[in-house]
Amino acid sequence: MLLLLSACTRLPNVQGNGEAVLQGIWNQDSVANSEQLLNYTQHKFKFSCDSFYVDLTTHSKVNYYEEACFNKGVWKEYAKGTYKVSGDTLFLTGTFTKANYKQKVSGCYRSGRYISNFKIRAMSSGKLTIESLNDQKECILILKEKINCVPKEL
After folding, report:
1. In this structure, what DSSP letter does residue 35 have?
2. CB-based contacts of 93, cutoff 8 Å, min separation 6
3. Tens of pLDDT, residues 2-19
4. Is the pLDDT of residue 117 over 70?
5. Distance between CA atoms of 120 and 132, rounded to whole angstroms?
6. Do 121 and 130 touch, CB atoms closer than 8 A?
7. Is 18 in contact with 47 (CB distance < 8 Å)?
8. Are 38 and 60 in contact (CB under 8 A)?
9. Distance between CA 99 and CA 120 in Å, rounded?
10. Do residues 69 and 53 make contact, with C-beta atoms less than 8 angstroms apart?
């Protein structure tokens, strides 16, 4: 019994460090060929330690929602969670939220789990190029503000 107890170690109740090169606020300033697309989404990411926050601004020429939600073809969604980089892949796992990053249980657009995976195409100190593994769309992100990770208690 003592051997079993000594083999287990309690994980610290502190946020992980995440990837140093990702720490900061990253914006997708434009989308290639956006004028020809029926819909597209621009991303704004914030990576802080092992957490991410994302603002998704969708532009659509096609109405997928009831008129009150369609908002003349432009709407925002928000999500937060944790991320992990493994090899050349960025894994994001979280939930859709309201604009204040508090839990969203209903309303327009998506709710529930936010799971997205991106292949990291190129990474430098000021530019990050990722490709969605869901729809193979490329997303070029520009670093707007660097953040230093200060892990917080969970």
Report:
1. G
2. 81, 82, 83, 84, 113, 114, 115
3. 445 455 665 567 778 999
4. yes
5. 9
6. yes
7. yes
8. yes
9. 27
10. no
What token pair was written down for 91? 């894994």
> How many helices, marked H, and strands, marked E, lie in the chain?
2, 8
- Cβ-contact 95, 81 below 8 angstroms: yes
The answer to whether residue 146 scores a pLDDT higher than 70 is yes
Beta bridge mates, 58: 41, 75
Whole-structure pTM value: 0.86
How far lies 126's CA from each of 39, 67, 120, in Å? 27, 39, 14
Beta carbons of 54 and 60 less than 8 angstroms apart:
no
Burial 90-99 (b: 16+ CB within 10 A, else e): bebebbbbee
Residue 22, both tokens = 């990702």
Asked if 28 contacts 42 with a C-beta cutoff of 8 angstroms, the reply is yes
* C-alpha to C-alpha distance for 40 and 55, rounded to whole angstroms: 13
Q: Which residue has the tokens 């096609």?
A: 62
